[in-house]
Amino acid sequence: MKAVRFIAPGRPAEVVDLPVPAPGPGQVLLRVAGAGVCHSDLHILEHDFGFQGPFTLGHENAGHVAALGEGVQGFKEGDAVAVYGPWGCGRCRTCQTSAENYCENHAAIVSFGGGLGSDGGMAEYMLVPSPRLLVPLGPLDPVAAAPLSDAALTPYHAIRKALPELTPDTCAVVIGIGGLGHMAVQLLQALSACTLIACDVDQAKLAHARELGVRHTIDTRDAESAFEAIRAITGPRGAKAVFDIVGSQATVDLAARVVGRDSRIAIIGLAGGVLRYAANNPPYGCTVEVPYWGSRTELMEVIALAQEGRIRAQVERFPLEQAPQVYQRLAAGGIRGRAVLTP
């Protein structure tokens, strides 16, 4: 089978031929329909996070059950499923509550999940170590649903915590309307009556936000004018929540400026920005969090939203063999919504 492999930090992904794996006891073999292409992959390829290659990339996956290992129950061949991405120990308290994204034993686990140390879904087949990591898709197309497991789940995890505070008289800001951001604005519109402000440096992505129903879109190439434009909408109260899906120094600084007191900043992006603290900066009462992915039950909730037609990933499909070119386009900001590789 064809597979897109991480070899070592600093080396581009390679498309190679591998044997089809066979599921052992308790394992499930997935015939991959779609694997999302994520900015996190670029970070893995370009920086040394301690991952030992080679392994198959792809941590945002969906497909059909191809074979069941001995003892697996609850699924049958042909079932359409999404793969829950962060693989914990499965035994600690947080894993038992489905929050494997916050596994207490993460430091002792070599792999963070498929595509993150273990073989992922950028291949014709993927070996999933446990059926607990599969979530049924029902009637959803697995190719279109693949981004739900990260591009939707990650912002949902952050937004879900903020929902009690996002009353109709508040404002929420989303910075970065790419793969995760275009899902974040849909989630906020589906779940909250707050005023939504979408921010980006790319006019095409701001136009995409408007197509998704966002009324207020702000070009953030000039930080001062962006701040003034956001403050004109929020008023002196400031934003109640900012979801920074970029995480660069410029976006982190903007987030700290536009929130009001008793507010929330969620830094989701991995672009290396540092939040500087001083008295009343960010404002008093502001909660700052660095959320990571989401829980298995939250993925079930995301899939339910998609099944009801309340959210939908904008997907651009590519053959598996084009993965190196797709990564180049992603790095250049040339992907609208989410790129999905289709074996």
Sum this structure up briefly:
The protein has 343 residues and is an alpha/beta fold. It has 10 helices and 18 strands. The protein folds into 2 domains: 2-150 and 294-342, Medium-chain alcohol dehydrogenases, catalytic domain (Quinone Oxidoreductase, Chain A, domain 1); 153-289, NAD(P)-binding Rossmann-like Domain (Rossmann fold).
Describe what this molecule looks like in 3D.
By secondary structure, the protein is of the alpha/beta class. The protein folds into two domains: 2-150 and 294-342, Alpha-Beta Complex (Quinone Oxidoreductase, Chain A, domain 1), CATH 3.90.180; 153-289, NAD(P)-binding Rossmann-like Domain (Rossmann fold). Helix content is 26%, strand content 25%. α7 (223-234) packs parallel to α8. It is globular, with a radius of gyration of 20 Å.
Chain-wise SSE layout:
Blueprint: E1 2-6, E2 14-17, E3 28-37, H1 39-46, E4 55-56, E5 61-68, E6 80-83, H2 93-96, E7 113-114, E8 117-118, E9 125-128, E10 134-136, H3 142-145, H4 153-162, E11 171-175, H5 181-191, E12 195-200, H6 203-211, E13 216-219, H7 223-234, E14 239-244, H8 249-258, E15 259-267, E16 287-289, H9 296-307, E17 315-319, H10 323-331, E18 338-342
Parallel strand pairs: 7-8, 11-12, 11-14, 12-13, 14-15, 15-16, 17-18
Antiparallel strand pairs: 1-2, 1-4, 3-5, 3-9, 3-18, 5-6, 6-10
Helix pairs in contact: 7-8
